């Protein structure tokens, strides 16, 4: 009766098939009743959604300024509980989501280590997700594995009690809420000059592997007359999947390795660092590219309204001396992440009208 | 004056004597004014208590369905603070307690690692407990050491400011809140057919070391005309302390290693996994017992009302294909843990009448 | 274009200069509008401030006794969010601050590990601080590095959105909130006999390296007619910087290595343990000094009102048998830490009048 067996864990019927589908085929699955239910891909966002969310974020930050307003904010979702499931370390995204939840009155559980989980007892990742979902109303996940978030959303949408999933970063490619905060920052920095439409945006640094600049490029299709300037060393040029996409969408872009010549041309400069944590190869050497740094002396080269952005953390790409300049937008950008994530969570639970009604 | 001494830490007077007492002798110590104060042993629960707690859990989950009701729930204990002291990893029990506290409005502190504690500075376990109790109103502990919870309760009941203790699992034997959620699930799954009285329950798997099936067996004395079917490989049969107990209580039980023959007979099947994490010995080899698994094809063998339970995490004992069947109760069972723990905490702080009054 | 460079991180202009200033020169920087904004040094506290804070702590603990009062307390700062940034393990200080925040309704984020932070991505400590400050309204830090807290306060006070810093212990020297709780305990234990003025205080143990006794000595200048008895083995005598300070201030002190002869003389005995965690040297051997322990038999030697204190954790310095004596004040002292920290946080956000108004 006792048999030493080579166990193969069964997978949930339909899961593998779903995971093998293309992004476009998967996307409809993450909506319910014409609204986004799970937030997995940047491709889920259209202009109407982005505009609505930015507006909602503006109203939320305005409410948070007063004690009464912040009490109204907390009353929105004080009956809901969230789970932050962060398998991959991420101070910034974690704190940003946590405080977004706190702003809305949500109680938060967290799992930041695999070692405290039941995986040591041989539980499948799917069962672990279902366990988390048993206790909460929203799962926000961050995972080193590409495809994790869509798998999680599929599993949790197919239970007796579906629970929405927000992708807080999965693998090298998708980080949709970072894209949201970048869009929100651009719109907000340009709010007195007509918003993002018609602007020229430089993206600088490791464009090949940087998921923020890749996502941001995709989202430009939602805005009119935007021009992109890709500024990178030759080995870190933007990949052809993105440039092909831009060509199809009719979005003009320029490529250059001469950062200083681009500086006076643009309305925003989006700096990125070299991503040592991904993959091997010769680009992982402890080298740096000082020609792709933004230094204090460059402040005199850029336009008076030009916004300097960075997804952070920075290493040496931007001089700390630049921080004092009002055009240095990266710290505001970071805090915008909290507001736009609060807006996103409020949206997921259908609370927009509640927020709007506070201003009537 | 300076002496290298072999230090022997003193123990609190009376503690050793208390710890050496039998369970039955210790139990009265955990009650105050005719009510349970600390929750340490499954043996503390009688039928009246169990019925009351299941009823309270039903009302709490009903209140939690509305925003108003959940606000009333949070108002119950919003002035109280709990400490989750989990020295042993446990995702499920931890999250279940944490969210139970959140439902009741409690603020929660947690200690999940011994390395961040003062033990490195040479503090005794008793002093660490007193420190935790200094700041909070309730301690929920999980510890690998048998006897830890009763020691903690004794220490904290003998201070200027007694703080109740809930045992969230201590060592291989006691996990009383797991027993509560199992009872609650059985009662709830059978609620349209008269509850647990008169039912036939199979317990399957590692009965020798599984503390859930041991505790559940003990609690059966509180229910009328229950019959137990123990289904296990020979090396994992239920131990004689439990079967002797059943005999004394007049609770009929059967033993079998033929799972399929038992399936059609019973009203509930309680599956367990082989517990590799305890102790050494040949049973820790990476073997499995496929004859004691519940497979999709077994769904046709069991009764239409038969409830399939599992304390989780599962490894291979239940096919994931079974999850879709309405008789698969284990995910509901897991979530029941949150509700019954919320009921237990509300009870400890004497909040039953407050909950009942919401329904008047 | 690609260059392997030896990177030197720039520092924020002015930071180095500030850090090289003496304590007295730095202190004005931590106040705004005549009130303390950051809490970095014990030297920031004068008698008026200490008396006000002790009074505030008394009122807060009184409010916390009732459900209504505790709701009023939480309403004070429910719109604020704090960050506990504890790089160094500290159960007691951490829990004390956390529960102080909870009492006042604050939401709390925490970072207790450097490994989950962005430092692995090469971020500077200053940027990490600014990130934390992006999401919250108060930073409470604990750090092994002397000077960390003042650096943090300087950095965060020089941003677009200044955020106050409380020093929860930095390096071997400063732990101002420990000093506050010690003062609060002395005042409270002596409340029926005129408070701390005119009392005789023994400080016992490792006076050379113990930062609590050093800070407490400094603060004695705020009280009238206090006499200090330093009781220590020769190798752990109080350093001359403190004794010089006392001489300048005209505060009488005695030094002794005969603990028992001092016992009957004093109104309070402040016990400390030998601090193995700091520095090397021969004093780090696993030795102990039993002549500097307080044993049960000593209870008959001290005055009926004499208060026995200890910053905890204790090792063997105080018999557990002593705990039952009403003069054993160390557990009350520990809990006082929560109340005085709640008072401090309420003060920082200017909530004193709100608290006082509850008693009108």
TrEMBL record, chains A, B, C:
This is Aspartate carbamoyltransferase. It comes from the Bacteria. Residues 197-347 form the Aspartate/ornithine carbamoyltransferase Asp/Orn-binding domain. The keyword Cell division does not apply. It catalyses: carbamoyl phosphate + L-aspartate = N-carbamoyl-L-aspartate + phosphate + H(+). Belongs to the aspartate/ornithine carbamoyltransferase superfamily. ATCase family. The lineage of its organism: Bacteria, Pseudomonadati, Thermodesulfobacteriota, Desulfobacteria, Desulfobacterales. Keywords: Pyrimidine biosynthesis, Transferase.
